[in-house]
Every structure is written in structure tokens, then in C-alpha cells.
Amino acid sequence: MLVAGCAKFPESGPRDWREKITDGGQVEVPPGSPGEQGAPGGTPPPQQPPGEATGCVDPDPQVVATCLDPVGAIAVLPGGVAALVAERATGRILRVERGVAPVLVTTVPVQAAGGGGLTGLVLSPAFDEDQLVYAYASTPGDNRVLRIAPGEPPKPVLAGIPRGGTNNGGALAVDREGALLVATGNAGTAAAPTSLAGKLLRIDTLGRPAQGNPDPASAVLSSGLNAPGGICNDPLSRTSWITDRLADRDVLYRAQPGPLGAPAWSWPARPGVAGCVAGPGLVAIAQAGAALLYVLRPAPSGGFTGEPELLLTGVYGRLSAASRGPDGLVWLGTVNKGGGGAVVPSDDRVIRIQPPAGGGSRL
Fold first, then answer.
1. What is the CATH number of the domain that holds 276?
2. At 232, phi and psi to the nearest 5?
3. Count: domains in the chain
4. How far is CA 254 from each of CA 34, 132, 250, 266, rounded to the nearest angstrom?
5. Could you list the residue range(s) of the whole structural domain that residue 154 is in?
6. pTM of the model
7. Cis (ω within 30 of 0) for the bond into 327?
8. 168 within some domain
9. Distance between CA 42 and CA 153 in Å, rounded?
10. Considering the domain boundaries, does residue 167 fall inside one?
């Protein structure tokens, strides 16, 4: 399945999250991107991308890759220049880098019906040494976590997660202890306490319950999920956030052992929450239906401070996958094709932006 000349991942250790102040919700061109205006501290570009795309050529300096199928997940590689991108319905995993044609890494056989497909992707906690990648995928018979190694076909690590007519998507992350966090959909039913559906699982890289779980014999950390869209970890506070789509609202949870309890934030209008990124003082949530990036600022007391920021409104269309690079930049994927929104010739796309910062906010 792996093509010749698989991605050679940059050898660079992780760096700390860095925020850069933007003006009232504008998003800056990432440092070093083609078309960056002037030296550091120069004028940021406007919200609207420059020019229009012609075929797969997109003049927007924030666009990293074009003409993809709808993006299900992104995992940024060490160094922050390139990333692995999962296409939800095709099962393809591609290495993308601005100015370089996407390279096929592998194809995961998937069944995308019922919100499934290839919806989760994360680097191994020891990626620099083992070059392993983990994926969350739907098959005709189940949902599962797969391990992907260079030169080998994908292998199941945790299989048998129930699948049903709806809510088959899932998400992956790695916590501070190096355990895999796996958010699973409820497969369209009220999941039993012993079921792996509708749960936040915490496993080691071999698929076993991770050390430190409430029940040492169980992979289940939390319960009560419906149709999760993303997991993200704040590297300083060690808080894990999960986005979820309920029947009557979209929500953001703080992960905790046992039942997830009341959401930390709710959206009654159901804007289609998807992937998220977290860093010191902020949580940014990609929204597909609302076609924007929604930024909240957690407070030490457990609530949120200030007003939410709505960024990139309508600029790139329906946003889905989200991932933070080791340099602090935010990577986002779109799901415009077949999603009911406006489609441009270069869709679907992966973009890379400077994260918002600063005390002010603008709606």
C-alpha cells in the first residue's frame, strides 16, 4: 500500500506553543510563508484571501495543499513544515507541504457511510524513534484504531468498536503521559456502559488500557459521547477538550474520568463543531456548518473569559480537521465538496495560520 519514496519526516524536536497578537480577529500569514509581508511585526493580510484560485493553484499564502477530497484529520510532522492529511471518504493519507505536490503515504480501506471513514490521525508519542502513525477508521463491520508503519499495511491496534447507521466518526490525540486518547461515536444508539461506543478511551500504543485509568482493566476513561468531532490537549494545563454534536446542540467538554457531565460550552444553533486546538489561554474550534474558527479563552476558575472570537468566517468555507504544529501554527482542513457549501476550484484545502492571541476580541 505504501508508495515508493514514502514521506521522509523532518527531524526536529517539538517546540513550545507561541502566540502572536493579531488585530481584532485577523489571521496572519505564517512566518516563512511565500508572500509574507515584510519583516516580523509587518502588516498582517486581510481576512479575505488574495486573488482567486485557478484550478489547483491557489495564490493564498496560507493554503498548503489543494484539490483534496474532504479532509478528515491532520497530524503535523516535526518541524511544522509538512503534515499528514487523511481524506475521510477515500481513506488516503497524504504528506502535504506548501509548494510540493502531495505524496501518497498509504490508503486505509474505509466505509464512510454514517459519518464514518478516516476521521482520526495522530503521530506516535515516540514518533522521532518509531515513525509510527495512528488512525481512526470505519470498516464495514466496526470502527477501529490502526497503527501505520513505514513500508507496512495498516494494522489494527483496537478493533471491535461498534458501528451503526450514524455517528461512526472518532478522533485521536496523545496525552501528556504518552497514552492514546480515542473519542468514539455512539453508533446511533444509547451505548451500554461496557461498550466501547460513545466513550473517551485511553489506551497504550498496543491497544491495552493505559496505566492510570480509573479501572486498570478497562480502556474507558469517560462516557457520554454522541458524535465527537475532535480532541485537543492544552500542553500546560493538561486539560483535554472534546467537541461533540448532540441531537439538540453542539457542545465542548472538558475530559474527566467517569461521565462527562455538563458541557463547558454549548451551541444551540448546532454550527457543526469539528476539530480543535488548545494552547495556553485558548481553545479554537473548527466549525463546518458555520464555516469559521470559534475561539474561547478558558479561565483558571473553570469558566471562560471575554467574548468568543469568530475568525475566518466564510473565508475558506466549511472547516473540519484542526491540528497544532510544533511551532504553534494552526493547521485546518476543509470539507466543502459535497457539504452543501460554496466550492472553489482549489477545494478541498489544507491551510496553516498563526493562532489568535491578545486580550481583545471581536465578533
1. 2.120.10.30
2. -145, 145
3. 1
4. 37, 28, 14, 12
5. 63-353
6. 0.85
7. no
8. yes
9. 46
10. yes
